[in-house]
Structure to design on (282 residues):
């Protein structure tokens, strides 16, 4: 057995990443950063980078889906959510769909670097397009994840990098498109995990309307309080088909998850969540 690697007294969990023959490294304008356990991810220095939102949706998805035979990540970006899910569900086949070629290329490098190319089917395209999916994909995914863009194009300053714009603003569809696609592709008994703003209140209403327009139901959701005393800004949601649930089952709103305490320190609960996702507990 190989010796376990440590980082500041913490034993890094999971299997080690194999040595790659190509010795992949970051190109100019890129960084290579640690993600879950030994996994690493390529990101643009000035572009979209993985965030707390990604950690939350990957955690919530895998907590609510202990087993899955096939997984799909919609609008996968640079692959952060899918990679974290893969870390918790080793050897489970994944499909990712991403429309931005720059993000798709970064994800390709990350999956190759981590020795996971055989586990994932990366697809370049808009998931709203019928050409992206195959007939055998219908109702075949036990777990679907998604981090929809949060804002309409006319709702704020777009930013200085096109990759960031498409991740934050609804350039290619919105929460409704994610729900419609998930409803079509979920296997019987499967679930869809997503993250979306819940404040201001009309954002939560957008989630509810998007779900109600499909055959899905919100089974449970958890508000995310970014700092002690603040109103929850985000929510993570777990959706399933109505056909898979008893009519008597009511939606469960869980107690808020706080990211930072009043003193600015990361809360103990979120540190433990990150520990479960393969991050240092510091």
């Amino acid at each position: 057995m190989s010796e376990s690697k440590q980082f500041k007294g913490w034993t890094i969990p999971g299997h080690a990443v194999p040595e790659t023959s190509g010795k992949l490294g970051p190109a100019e304008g890129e960084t290579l950063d640690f993600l879950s356990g030994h996994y690493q991810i390529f990101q643009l220095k000035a572009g979209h980078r993985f965030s707390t939102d990604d950690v939350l949706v990957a955690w919530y998805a895998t907590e609510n889906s202990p087993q899955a035979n096939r997984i799909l990540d919609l609008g996968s970006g640079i692959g952060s959510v899918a990679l974290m899910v893969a870390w918790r569900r080793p050897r489970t086949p994944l499909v990712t769909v991403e429309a931005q070629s720059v993000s798709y290329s970064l994800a390709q490098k990350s999956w190759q670097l981590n020795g996971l190319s055989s586990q994932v089917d990366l697809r370049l395209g808009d998931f709203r397009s019928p050409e992206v999916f195959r007939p055998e994909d219908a109702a075949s995914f036990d777990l679907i994840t998604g981090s929809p863009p949060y804002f309409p194009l006319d709702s704020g300053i777009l930013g200085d990098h096109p990759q960031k714009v498409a991740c934050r603003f609804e350039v290619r569809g919105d929460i409704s498109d994610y729900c419609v696609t998930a409803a079509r592709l979920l296997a019987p008994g499967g679930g869809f995990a997503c993250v979306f703003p819940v404040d201001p209140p009309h954002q939560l209403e957008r989630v509810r309307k998007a779900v109600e327009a499909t055959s899905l139901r919100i089974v449970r959701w958890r508000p995310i309080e970014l700092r002690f005393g603040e109103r929850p800004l985000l929510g993570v949601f777990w959706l399933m088909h109505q056909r898979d649930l008893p009519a008597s089952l009511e939606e469960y709103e869980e107690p808020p998850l706080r990211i930072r305490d009043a003193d600015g320190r990361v809360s103990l609960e979120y540190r433990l969540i990150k520990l479960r996702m393969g991050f240092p507990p510091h």
Notes: Residues 52-64 form the longest helix (13 residues). The chain has a mean pLDDT of 93. The chain is about 25% helix and 25% strand.
